[in-house]
Protein 1
Amino acid sequence: MKKVLNRAPEVTSTFWIIKVLATTVGETAADYLSVTLNLGLSVTSYIMSGLLLIALWNQFRLKRYVPVSYWIVVVFTSITGTLITDRLVDELGVSLITTTIVFSVVLLVVFALWYLKEKTLAMHSINTAKRELFYWVAILFTFALGTATGDLLAEALKLGYAQSALIFSVLIAIVAGGYYYFRINAVLAFWIAYILTRPLGASVGDLLSQPAKNGGLGLGTVETSMLFLSIIISLVIYLSLKQKQPAPTAD
């Protein structure tokens, strides 16, 4: 019988670390390309969407989990999801409250369709092209929703980046506590935490990169992006080497 390979990684502490770092890069890289390099949101969106499609093509071609390919897709999805929200808010004038509500509804629809078709939303069941397609669409909208939610708290409600990051950290801790101590559904806990890590990473990215007059620490988008990218690359190399190690055999 042919073994069915999973197309997504195991959910470990390393997974969550890279995920938060990737969301931070999504925020700072989008700001760097559209603002610092003055490419604008439209041009940056077209470029990142094109790169995301290329990365997805390679990911589907592999038909299995490969750390480098998978996390490249996550980073480009993070940047693209950020740009979707930024364009709606900054170019089309859609409010952050509206984008938060709309993306919440869209994400619920994606999850509903996914479950109706496949009867599962679990990470360990991403072993067909159809399930992986639902998976990446859901992830794209978690990034768009997370961007809207993070900006809503930090900017529209004027809580600031540090306080917003603290709020999302507490919410993630509550979800983790619910999973470990009260045994709430693992799939539900995963997706709630996945959504919350996006505004957490965005708040951390803005806190580090934005100038002091805007409530940040003034590290800059280039420095912040390069710092977090370096950590991501190091962790992905570690995962790639670990994946290539032969499984231990019983004596």
Protein 2
Amino acid sequence: MSATLRPARATSRAAARTTPTSTSRRTGTRRRLPFGKTFATFLLLPLCVLMVFPFVWLLLTSLRPQNTVFSGPFFPESFTGTAYATAWTSIEFPLHFFNSLWITAATVVGVTVFATLSGYAFAKLDFPFKNTLYLLLLTTLMMPGTALIIPLYLELKSLGLLNTQAGLLVLYISGSAPFSMFLMRAFFATLPDELIEAARVDGSSELSIFARVVLPLARPGVATVVIFQFLQTWNEFLMANTVLQDTDKLPLQPVLFTLTGQYSTDWPTLTAGLVLSIIPVVLVYVRMQNQFVAGMTLGAVK
């Protein structure tokens, strides 16, 4: 009987010795985590407020009477939606919204096709003057877009593409493809060469390897290119306003700029048009945010 009680007493003493240590460790961990979370909250909360404030002001201004934009309180005493109806009809919003939508969609498709094909070629294929061509394409990123407006304008005029949406697409795709190619090359370079070699041994062509093996693995990179290109093209103003002289061919952003007057501006109508123009950007990002985050953090963890 005593032999049976001795191991039990030894076990209880060992548990009593280890329990305070483990409890103190757990308590210390619990004490450290809330402090870190609290510090991060106080650090990030002002940044969030600072970033959200312009959008809140934009939304509230679009819903308030015009005579209370700068004289009334921050939160309007009365809300009205007349500015949205005015913005919808005064600038032919549906027409220019459709122009922006199809121009942006065509640009995203064109840039994605060129960027993925060229990125795969520069990352996984061997061909003459590979590095030279890659450096030449990268040098185009060093030229500011504003410095190229006059040469591009004259070039489109000589080709007969001035004042056409096709000419604007040529500028958008050719100007955005090098950066997207550089981004996709970095994604394709992270993929193991053994997958491509195994597909080649099985008899697959390079196009089949690209479409069935490589491209599905690079979905985060493709999503990153799509979001970046959609934002850039949808919000582009300078090239569209320079190349297109016909008002019916203009995308949405140059037309919204016409709502700003020289001496006075109808701020509720302008902000209502801007709120409506933000909706496609929000929908695209919400739809592809998981792939976008995965693409941005792909190089952080291996």
Protein 3
Amino acid sequence: MIDLLETIVNTDSNSYDKEGVDQVGALLKEKFEDIGMYVKVHRQTEQGNHLEIKAERESQPKILIIAHMDTVFPKGEAKKRPFSVIGDKAYGPGVNDEKASHVQVLYAMKALKESGSPAVNNVHIIFNSDEEIGSISSKSLIEEAAVGKDYSLVVECGRPNDGVVTERKGVGHFTVNVTGKGAHSGVEPEIGISAIEELAYKVIKLQQLNDYEQGLTVNVGLIKGGTSVNTVPPHAEAEIDVRIKNEDQAMNVTNSIHQIAGEETVKGTRTELTGAIDRPPMERTEESKKLFNMIKETGKELGFTIHEVSTGGGSDAAFTAAKGIPTIDGIGPIGEFSHSETEEYTDLNSLVDRTILLAKIIERLSM
């Protein structure tokens, strides 16, 4: 398992590196076919290809497992800091988010196959290539695969001390473009209209939408504008990250952002707003609570003390949860510091533990 993890980690697979993601996909296809599973490749033109895996082509599984092959790290990162093991921890780009999960899913299926468990026939696996950039092309594939499913297990990394994720925030991205009128700031500033000034008013109002107690965050994370220091700026732009806990928040904050964009404080400016909430929240429901309790009990039988965690990060779990399918995330091997250039790690002790846990969960859900 560690040898395979090393090979995958040492293969760059940034979301925009189609060649690298496809190398990871080709390796996984080979490994799953070696254990007798059916693999369908969904070819893409820009991002990497997606994989769809079942025990048999015409089977109708009730459990959906979702993993992503892309990382946030640029091409060349694996050569710069290749896979390494220090003590019980494995390091390298994407080791925790989520290449250790690739190994976990493969070996869970291998264990079910070799033990003769019929539960292997009840699994439908999606490996997608664009999760880190919003699952642009894979969202429809995931939603199609979700039809008729009873459960969804998403193998983002497990949390320390045997945590799994039962609740995630929804994610939105908006862009505000303000147009003013350029003019020489020394010769005739009075005929100019400052787009930056208008944007500044909007940024303050946008930041005031934050409600940390209710789990709503609005972050104006990028701004740019102007053409030169001695020119009244004719253009300014801001990009906004939004995180919401439920659908009511999504509707209300979207309306507020549109209202702020539509207000004119600096006369003569024009504002264009684009974007939306593109990942719904993964809300904790009664059905997902029942699924968690079953996972907790399964973990207890294996000697693990499973607990639930809520997180502000988004994942593909949102798409199946939004379809009303009981969904649990964070089923993958345990680690921390995803996206870190130096500290991201996977606890190698959890690699086998979480593989066994996943196989046992599949068996329990297939009874």
